[in-house]
Amino acid sequence: MKKMLTGNYASAYGAKVSKVKVVSAYPITPQTTIVEKIAEFIANGEFDGKYIRVESEHSAMASCIAAENTGVRTFTATSSHGLALMHEMLHWASGARLPIVMSVVNRSLGPPWSIWSDQQDTISQRDTGWMQIYTENNQEVLDSIIMAYRIAENEIVMLPAMVIEDAFILSHTMEPVDIPDQADVDEFLPDYNPKFKLDVSEPMGFGSLIMPEGPFMEFKYKGHESMNNALKIIDETDILFKKKFGRSYGGTVETYKLDNAKYALVMMGSTASTGKEVVDKMRDEGYEVGLLRIRSFRPFPKDKLRNYLSNMKSIGVFDRSYTFGYGGAVFSEVRNTMYGKNIPIKGYIGGLGGRDVTMNLIEKIFLDVVNMSEKGQDKDYEWVGLNGDKRWSQ
Amino acid sequence: MKNLTIPEEELMLPGHTACLGCGATLAMRYALKALGKNTIVTIPACCWAVIPGVYPARTLEVPLLYTAFEVTGAAISGIKNALEATGNDDINVLGFAGDGGTADIGIQSLSGAVERGENVFYIMYDNEAYMNTGVQRSSSTPKGAWTTTTQVGKVRDWKKEKKKNMVEIMVAHNIPYAATASIAFPEDLIKKLEKGKNIKGPKFYHIYATCPTGWRISPSKTVEIARLAVESKVFPLYEVDHGVYNITYMPKKNVSVKEYMLPQGRFRHLTEDEIKEIQSEVDKDWNLLLEKEKWTQSLNKVQ
Ligand SMILES: Cc1ncc(C[n+]2csc(CCOP(=O)(O)OP(=O)(O)O)c2C)c(N)n1
Ligand code: SF4
Fold first, then answer.
1. Whether this model's pTM surpasses 0.90
2. Which of A139, A149, B225, B276 is most exposed, with the fewest beta carbons within 10 Å of its own?
């Protein structure tokens, strides 16, 4: 069924068709309309699950963890400061190997207060052991939630996943979205049936104290292995999803006009769709440019990246987040991945606090990348689109 | 043949790692005797996160979810809702947390769970300080006590503030049932938990749990001190059942606060005058409790 949906409503429908049993969430702009839509489903008897109206995001994640540990599929959604407040429990969820799926609406972190889009909130949670899937449009939001449950609950993965959408650009913007038939989703996503759970007929303990001699380190190593397993499962799930629903997103990585390109720009999230427009325009003008969109930042698809980018003359990486004192996180990962290839790679940090990432700006970045291969690289990375900076004016 | 007043079934097995004479172990043992096998327990960071043993050992014969320090209220909510979502409405869900995990860092998630009316049991075992991390002050540490963060030293920096009253905080949430209990009065403790099985909504228990290590007493005095706490009215035994107060044990001996404090190293530094001041506060609180009982019971009759 096709409907005009915002990214947030697409997310709520994603949870609904995934037959989540427990939702626990706390409101924060720009996530609020997700939890409101779920409340509407519940009020209309369209949602066969429990909804815990917790008093904080920390409790939202803690109660999802406890519910998931009791053997049911859970869902939550948050953004920005809410995600930061969850930090402790994010580690708990992945350490306990619970395939919780969470919608995250990318929003900047204060101060100064800003409710607009950047990826600082999710990038800051890189090392919590969660998969991170960055989406580009509202259909992808919905589809990725269904896929995320199937991926996360895979026996060789069993890790939680964030499905990430940009604040307002997706969360509050309507697009036509196909809501898949429940019967099809049921076939694609079987009931959640974990091997181990809190069960009075078979009492077990979860999360007890472990001495340094073990197996703490072994548990963490298994988590690491499972995250690597997820690379394959994400790609396979994308193919299976296409078979069932006719839509595909490339799994861990999506490429755009990259096959015969010499210059690539790497992006994540909805800015990639502006990037694609720029690629089209510059292709018309004769530039051999292409785009690579990382969908899965964790696990990081390093082999695929190396494969796709090895023939480039130069590469730019756009980060919509920052780390004071160094280049962006995506830039660092991409440059590590391409180590030894001797390809100039430059990072560009921009679009913070919802600052518009315009076609004009992306075109300037592409031109810089093209120039770099001939004239040499001026800097490792730089901030673009700062007020008053003529070189990078939007 | 004598009549057993305490269930025989043991759901806490030997082999725990608590200190000698730990009152908190008795609290758990009696609680599980009352609630039985059909119970899921969750424990946050506290002494009891260590007491069941190091992986893979476990002294408890019930499903056990360890969780972070401040989330007990959220964890019991999650377990209970998951059970209800799958039609398992008859399983007891018990959060078992220390006074720090309850009255301080965990008060938010507890307040949320109680306000939402979750059908769960919550036990705060009260050893009156952060014991797991080495006897630091909590808001449940009594006035007068030495702890490692309220040291006596040269300027007598022992804890000057009164203990937080968690039962009253729960009553202010309109909780269906809240009670105090003591490891020295197991029948009373068990009866209150059994009563809770027939009450829908949150049930809160404040259980006095002697800590020989933190209180600087002999491990052989665990039960004796707990009894003195009740007899001296420092820790009265009562319940608040749908707003109606009921004192479940009337102290029989006339024990003074001084007699209660004297055997405990944590109060050793207090002067006669300081103890007198604390005695007068205890008397005042006790009289207030008597009044609350009289008043709420009479209100109940009018209705
Ligand atoms: C967020 C967080 N802060 C601090 C700690 C360290 N910590 C662990 S247990 C504990 C004290 C527990 O005190 P209480 O709840 O009274 O239980 P007890 O140890 O006395 O039984 C502290 C401070 C922690 N685990 N998590
Ligand atoms: S420190 Fe106190 S509460 Fe903790 S195990 Fe030892 S006696 Fe028990």
1. yes
2. B276
